[in-house]
Design goal:
269 residues, mainly alpha, 2 domains, 14 helices, 72% helix, 0% strand, globular
């Protein structure tokens, strides 16, 4: 049974290990708040989006689509596809949280974002499923959630005073954060292939309207990763099957042996 001091220690450890990610997300949240101030949404719309959606890339994309008067269908489809990566995150972490109650799994899923996945997966992968309590996950997720709300609010409050904030290059901090998230995960061919495919296509298709190039690049990257992750039939098994088939084809059928009528007659007597 997990003791309460141990739970608190795990919670604090998760928040502590997420600190570098909090620093990278801070200017990203503030820039989002600033863009809301200069965009078509009301201030409380921007804060509500951060509270309910809690997905930086999807929020930026949705804000741009809203400003360009895209249809609700396009906004919904684009943000849905962009956030499909969270399905892969959940599948990766499932062995470590599948034993938890539905309430726990819903709470952890609500705070699962890119940075939290990077921190939690780096911690969980060093332990067997069931050895680590969910409090580490919760500490990482809640710290990132509160950090995002704070910096969104600061951008909303002070964005009007700094209208050119997004042009200062602060968003590079988030780029660096994503590089730190992605690169350590490229430990297999399927991961490298998926990342290269999505990155290259996103670059070449960036001129597509309504961010559809990004949508297509994500789909292509996921498709490549899934295709390369499919289990393959062992080579020896396939070779042995082929050899057996060739042997059967090469061996002539057994000659028909005529029965001895005298033996049959003797057997009947």
């Amino acid at each position: 049974m997990t003791t309460h001091p141990h739970r608190f220690k795990e919670f604090v450890a998760g928040a502590r290990d997420t600190l570098p990610m909090l620093v990278g997300a801070a200017p990203f949240g503030m820039i989002f708040g600033t863009l809301v101030v200069t965009g078509p949404l009301a201030l409380w719309h921007g804060q509500l989006m951060s509270l309910a959606v809690f997905a930086g890339s999807a929020q930026f994309i949705a804000l741009g689509l809203i400003a360009s008067h895209a249809s609700f269908t396009v906004i919904l489809a684009t943000t849905f596809i962009v956030n499909l990566r969270h399905v892969l995150y959940s599948a990766t972490l499932a062995p470590y949280i599948s034993h938890l109650s539905l309430r726990w799994r819903l709470a952890l899923g609500g705070v699962l974002v890119d940075e939290v996945f990077a921190v939690v997966w780096a911690h969980y992968r060093r332990h067997a499923p069931g050895e680590v309590s969910p409090w580490y996950f919760l500490g990482s997720g809640l710290s990132m959630y509160l950090n995002w709300q704070i910096w969104t609010a600061l951008g909303l409050l002070f964005g009007a005073a700094f209208p050119g904030l997004q042009s200062l290059g602060l968003d590079f901090a988030m780029v660096a954060t994503f590089i730190a998230i992605v690169v350590p995960q490229l430990v297999a061919l399927r991961y490298v292939a998926a990342a290269v495919t999505a990155g290259a296509l996103a670059f070449f298709w960036q001129a597509w309207p309504y961010k559809l190039g990004l949508l297509g690049a994500v789909l292509a990257g996921v498709a490549v990763g899934v295709a390369l992750s499919r289990p393959r039939k062992p080579l020896e098994s396939a070779d042995s099957s082929d050899a057996g088939a060739q042997t059967n084809r090469a061996s002539p059928p057994a000659a028909h042996q005529p029965q001895n009528p005298h033996a049959i007659a003797g057997g009947r007597q």
